[in-house]
Amino acid sequence: MRKDFLALSAISLLVVGVFWYLFSNEPVESEEILTNVHESMPAITPIIKEYDFNIDSFDIEKASIRRNEFLADILTRKGIPYQQIDRMVRQEKERFDVRKIKTGQTYAFVQPKDTLNRDRFFIYEENASVYWVFHFGDSLFVERKEKPVVTRLQYAEGMIDQSLWMSMVDNAYPPLLAIELSEIYAWSIDFFGIQRGDSFRVFYQEDFVDSVSIGIRSVEAAFFQHKGYDYWAIGFVQDSVYAFFDEHGQSLRKAFLKAPLRYSRISSGFSHSRRHPVLKIYRPHHGIDYAAPKGTPVYSIGDGLVVERGYQKSGGGNYVKIKHNSVYTSVYMHLQGFAKGLSKGDRVQQGQLIGYVGSTGLSTGPHLDFRIYQNGSPVNPLHVKSPPVDPIKPENAVPFEGTWKHWKARFEVYEPKVTSVGQVT
After folding, report:
1. Which residue has the higher pLDDT, 353 or 17?
2. Are 292 and 355 in contact (CB under 8 A)?
3. What does the pLDDT average to over 327-352?
4. What is the distance, to the nearest Å, from the Cα of residue 193 to the centroid of all Cα atoms in its chain?
């Protein structure tokens, strides 16, 4: 029995020894094997796509729609039978009207590199994010697709040297940001009176497609220093309307715009005795002359009723007269023409197009003669003060205060370089 016990013990020790050997060495062997596997695996090449087509599998040829060029002209050059084109146009006319294809828009012709695959595709870019895919293969159809739009919160600041527009250009900011700011502050700041040394700071949302900017989505908050005064603009939604308010909750929208047109210059001011450039005599000039290129849009400075629209034989040329309330009336003269459909008796809204700068009547060149009457008497448009409207309501006071403090804090801590666009993270 002792021999059986010794034999069993020996066998047990042998088994334990084998297992110890195998398991103590397995990690080293596994690590070596994994290392060898990783070293032998080829590098993964990322798949690059355009219009959802793998560029390794398809040839993509881009161009722009030329003047007087039609869809059939492009496709027949690429070997698409006219019968297929005609069938496609007729079949999909409710989905996409080929007559809407515009000169200058980008298009692409896509075909597979595999010569056995006879499918062909025509891409028309409606805009930077929307494009249409025409399928020419076993089946003919059109589908609408969209490129992903990425929205980024951006920051810009600058000092005015020549103009707000040039400040944007010089600092590599989107120039249209100048338009956005001029519209936000249209009731507070006279942008024809911008001075050297004025400054701006602004947070805004900008949209990008394929890392290329396609425009400004919205301005979130802004701070403007003009003639030594500070002007805040805080974006806030009240009654389902996105509007701008100052730090006290007063709306930046006033009863009147500061000027009836954008980006021009004052060529002649309000005067009780001015030498007329055509008649060469001295007489009152109860208005402001804004020199601007012929055809520049002219807008109503406030809500009101069109009480006159016609031609003034005494020298005003084409003109529009708008009664805003029982106190104020505005007049726009020397117009090249009127906004389409504008008639006497129409109600207009603030900022609505009413006509275009011209040189009709007694005029030496294109300009707008703009006048305001208070209780029937002419007043200097630059001196008219109008009260704010639609302040923050009491029930919105707390959320607005939170919004105002949020943006104020961001302005205080964010210090980007003036000469480059800063993306906020």
Report:
1. 353
2. no
3. 94
4. 25
